[in-house]
């Protein structure tokens, strides 16, 4: 990516992130199920200022749940508003799939990559490859163990796990039996929220964890 355009790309991506997060928290938002393995939004032509039109690639850990679908819809809406080409890929909860998507975006000359990683550790390799190729990478929603990200926007999952467990502990009076259903194994949400939950459980010896499991079967698809 050329240095002269780096600041503008950063500002565009920051706006995409902010709208995405706002859209995900809105109860009135709309979402549509992505078709195939990717979706794109193009405004056509150059930007209003006549500058180069940027091409941004997005890969989410999965597009079969409402949260990431809402993020994707908001990103496409904002990209259209800003006159930016955006292509969104479904990582399908598979590390190899998401790494391959990174490799394709690098080879196709995307100006920047936004992603929510399938795995907090394994996807650091893909980030390294992109940065070495001169493509800045922005994290959103879930974390990756890499110091190469240009920026990350998302919640603190350890704090979220502590909040969840404190709420449950209060509701059951500090004692009882619970089952923990985790998200995709290896994602920062699963790893770090589990850490937060167990931080709180240390204070409640009368709460017994009967099982910690990932839900069996595919994530239900969203239809609106």
From TrEMBL:
<dbReference type="InterPro" id="IPR028082">
    <property type="entry name" value="Peripla_BP_I"/>
</dbReference>
<feature type="domain" description="Periplasmic binding protein">
    <location>
        <begin position="56"/>
        <end position="214"/>
    </location>
</feature>
<keyword id="KW-0732">Signal</keyword>
<protein>
    <recommendedName>
        <fullName>Periplasmic binding protein domain-containing protein</fullName>
    </recommendedName>
</protein>
<comment type="similarity">
    <text>Belongs to the bacterial solute-binding protein 2 family.</text>
</comment>
<dbReference type="Pfam" id="PF13407">
    <property type="entry name" value="Peripla_BP_4"/>
</dbReference>
<feature type="region of interest" description="Disordered">
    <location>
        <begin position="29"/>
        <end position="48"/>
    </location>
</feature>
<feature type="signal peptide">
    <location>
        <begin position="1"/>
        <end position="26"/>
    </location>
</feature>
<dbReference type="InterPro" id="IPR025997">
    <property type="entry name" value="SBP_2_dom"/>
</dbReference>
<feature type="compositionally biased region" description="Low complexity">
    <location>
        <begin position="29"/>
        <end position="45"/>
    </location>
</feature>
């Amino acid at each position: 990516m050329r240095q002269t355009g780096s600041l503008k790309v950063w500002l565009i991506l920051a706006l995409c992130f902010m709208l995405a997060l706002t859209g995900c928290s809105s109860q009135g938002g709309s979402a549509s199920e992505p078709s195939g393995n990717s979706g794109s939004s193009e405004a056509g032509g150059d930007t209003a200022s006549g500058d180069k039109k940027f091409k941004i690639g997005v890969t989410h850990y999965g597009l079969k749940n409402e949260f990431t679908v809402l993020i994707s819809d908001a990103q496409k809406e904002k990209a259209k508003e800003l006159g930016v080409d955006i292509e969104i890929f479904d990582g399908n909860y598979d590390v190899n799939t998401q790494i391959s998507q990174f490799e394709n975006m690098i080879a196709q000359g995307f100006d920047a990559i936004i992603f929510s990683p399938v795995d907090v550790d394994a996807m650091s390799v893909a980030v390294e490859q992109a940065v070495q190729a001169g493509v800045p990478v922005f994290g959103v929603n879930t974390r990756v163990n890499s110091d190469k990200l240009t920026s990350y926007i998302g919640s603190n999952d350890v704090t979220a796990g502590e909040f969840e467990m404190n709420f449950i502990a209060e509701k059951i009076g500090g004692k009882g039996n619970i089952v923990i259903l985790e998200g995709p194994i290896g994602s920062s949400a699963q790893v770090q929220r589990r850490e937060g939950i167990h931080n709180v459980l240390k204070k409640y010896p009368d709460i017994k964890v009967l099982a910690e499991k990932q839900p069996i079967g595919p994530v239900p698809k969203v239809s609106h």
